[in-house]
Design goal:
Blueprint (H helix, E strand, L loop, with lengths): L1 E5 L4 H12 L3 E6 L5 H6 L3 E4 L7 H8 L4 E4 L9 H22 L3 E5 L17 H17 L6 E7 L1 E3 L6 E5 L6 E3 H13 L6 E7 L2 E2 H9 L1
Parallel strand pairs: 1-2, 1-4, 2-3, 4-5, 5-6, 6-10, 7-9
Antiparallel strand pairs: 8-10, 8-11
Helix pairs in contact: 1-6, 3-4, 4-5
């Protein structure tokens, strides 16, 4: 499969590209900074330079042509303010979904975050960045869910991300409690979700657990 990954230089994206390449797929990494091209190539993906914050839907659609699936794994990242949470995490996701639809690429997996539909907890958020992040993810997910049959979407909501080695075991489903999950396990779940049509139209929380990845994805699809 030819899988286009938006946010292609992110930690999850690079791990995903490697896993896809290792099994014979053709990962394509959308990157904003051309200096990141070699990292993407080293992960086994084809680098394509496009800025989700400035690209038109036509420009992005051209990058998605002939793909079998799209993974939205982009994010403004730590240290970015509320404005970029909106332009990347929300509007970038909407743009990607619009472009996928125009390109005729039905399968789309969107990486969100656990608990974004819950009320915002009080706490230390002096510049409003955390609230902006949650609201941006919530809005992006809502847009995707409102598209109905336009796309074969799955929303994946990982818990707190870690860089620990993969465990190969997760808890996945609508009612999973908050916990942590390794980025490598998230990548493995994305691969399995792309293979499982029963996950279409589902919003799945993801943390590390006791069930092997493929079995967890099959169970979530049933």
């Amino acid at each position: 499969m030819r899988i286009v990954i938006a946010g292609g230089h992110g930690k999850i994206a690079l791990l995903l590209a490697r896993q896809l390449a290792d099994r014979g797929d053709e990962p394509v990494a959308l990157i904003r900074n051309p200096d990141h091209s070699q990292d993407v190539v080293d992960a086994g993906a084809e680098p394509v330079v496009v800025d989700l914050e400035t690209a038109t839907v036509t420009e992005l659609t051209e990058k998605l042509m002939n793909a079998d699936g799209v993974v939205f794994a982009a994010g403004a990242g730590p240290g970015s303010g509320p404005a970029r949470k909106e332009t990347v995490d929300h509007k970038g996701a909407v743009l990607t979904a619009d472009a996928a639809s125009l390109a005729g690429v039905r399968r789309l997996v969107q990486v969100s975050a656990i608990g974004v539909d819950d009320p915002l907890p009080g706490g230390n958020d002096p510049d409003g960045s955390w609230a902006a992040y949650v609201e941006a993810k919530r809005a992006a997910d809502a847009d995707l869910r409102e598209r109905g049959l336009e796309l074969d979407w799955t929303i994946l909501r990982p818990g707190r991300l870690t860089d620990e080695p993969a465990t190969g075991r997760v808890a996945l489903g609508a009612e999973v409690e908050r916990d942590s999950v390794t980025r490598e396990d998230v990548a493995s779940v994305i691969v399995a979700v792309l293979d499982e049509p029963g996950t279409v139209g589902r919003v799945l929380n993801l943390v590390n657990g006791e069930t092997p990845v493929v079995e967890a994805v099959r169970a979530a699809a049933s």
